[in-house]
Amino acid sequence: MSQTYNRYEKARIIGARALQVAYGAPVLVDTEQSQPILIAAEEYDADVLPFTVNRGEGS
């Protein structure tokens, strides 16, 4: 990840990925975890998630 994410962005990324894993998306890391949220957190820590955060200009 080239960006540094704040805690809200991190939570959103892990939550979105956990939902994908729960619905059958392939897991991107070798893990012994079985819960989607833990798998997603491991993937986040391994820096393998293809997510980007688009921060708006603000109003």
Structural write-up:
The chain has 59 residues and is mostly helical. It has a domain at 7-45: RNA polymerase subunit, RPB6/omega (Eukaryotic RPB6 RNA polymerase subunit), CATH 3.90.940. Helices cover 44% and strands 0% of the residues. The longest helix is centred in the N-terminal third of the chain and has 16 residues, at 7-22. The N and C termini lie far apart (27 Å).
Q: Classify the fold: give the CATH topology of the domain at 7-45.
A: Eukaryotic RPB6 RNA polymerase subunit
Intertermini distance: 27 Å
Radius of gyration: 12 Å
Number of strands: 0
The residue fraction in helices comes out at: 40-55%
The SS-based structural class is: mainly alpha
Order of helices and strands: HH
CATH homology group of the domain at 7-45: RNA polymerase subunit, RPB6/omega
Number of helices: 2
Q: Give the CATH architecture of the domain at 7-45.
A: Alpha-Beta Complex
| Approximate shape | elongated
- Poorly predicted sequence stretches spanning 5 or more consecutive residues: none
Please report which band the strand proportion falls in: under 5%, 5-15%, 15-25%, 25-35%, 35-45% or over 45%: under 5%
**Top CATH class of the domain at 7-45:** Alpha Beta
Mean pLDDT: 92
- Summarize the biggest pleated sheet: none
Features:
single chain; 59 residues; mainly alpha; Eukaryotic RPB6 RNA polymerase subunit
SSE layout and pairings?
Layout: H1 7-22, H2 36-45
